[in-house]
């Protein structure tokens, strides 16, 4: 919740698109390394410990190793310093109304648009293993390929948003994510599933880097943490609903129904976003300090 408003605050407004696209690019790069390690380390520990592949111990040690790597981030956060920030002197700056409408609108959009990506992230490994019988190493390789591609596409987000505008990039990106679910649902082949997964993750990185800057600059500075918390909550609810409902749907109707259903939900999110933001909104508000930057 706090990391996005904090980075928005310490970063000069003219550099936000590049800073957040770089951050979004770093996430899948870490995922690329983690997916490769996650694909091959269980077999390594299985051979090292002389245990079968279905024993929990070969999976336990890679998870502990990942937890140790996370400790590095504490040092990076401690070394971060904010840029000088002068309080605004405008007399009207304290009377900033609560932007309820735009927060509710973006919360709904986040909940709907994340359905396709969440279904893929939650059930892709299960689908590849349970339905297609793909090996752990191949699943890790395909996931790593998607993460590496996402790192490259995230860096293109600033140029795309400058060329076409943030709303069209978010709309087209989420719409293309929904379309990626169609071949995944209709063709039961590991290559098609892998390509659809990589395409969706790559498109998601473009949309996410633009969407972060968009939602933060849509409200005044004092409400940015509220915006971030609302959208984080919407994202978490989406994960919960897809996890619970998806498990039931797979048992009752199969993976095809889940993937197509989530594609439709994401498409509905695209429609809601386009209808609300098709014209410039009055909620867009920079702080007085930003206006003079």
How would you describe the overall organization of this protein?
- The protein has 293 residues and is mainly alpha-helical.
- The protein has 12 helices and no strands.
- It has helices at residues 3-10, 16-49, 57-70, 72-78, 100-131, 136-154, 157-164, 166-186, 190-217, 224-253, 255-277, 288-291.
- The chain starts with a helix and ends with a helix.
- Mean pLDDT is 85; it is low at 285-293.
The gyration radius over C-alpha positions equals 21 Å
- What sort of overall outline do the alpha carbons produce when their principal axes are compared? globular
* Poorly predicted parts: 285-293
Share of β-strand residues: under 5%
Range of helix content: over 70%
Give the rounded overall mean pLDDT. 85
Q: What distance separates the N and C termini?
A: 25 Å
Summed up, the helix count is 12
What is the chain-wise order of helices and strands?
HHHHHHHHHHHH
Features of this protein?
mainly alpha; single chain; disordered C terminus; 293 residues
Report a brief summary of the structure.
With 293 residues, the protein is an all-alpha fold. The chain has helices at 3-10, 16-49, 57-70, 72-78, 100-131, 136-154, 157-164, 166-186, 190-217, 224-253, 255-277, 288-291. The longest helix is centred in the first third of the chain and has 34 residues, at 16-49.
Task: List the SSEs and their pairings.
Elements: H1 3-10, H2 16-49, H3 57-70, H4 72-78, H5 100-131, H6 136-154, H7 157-164, H8 166-186, H9 190-217, H10 224-253, H11 255-277, H12 288-291
Helix pairs in contact: 2-3, 2-6, 2-9, 5-9, 5-10, 5-11, 6-9, 7-8, 8-9, 8-11, 10-11
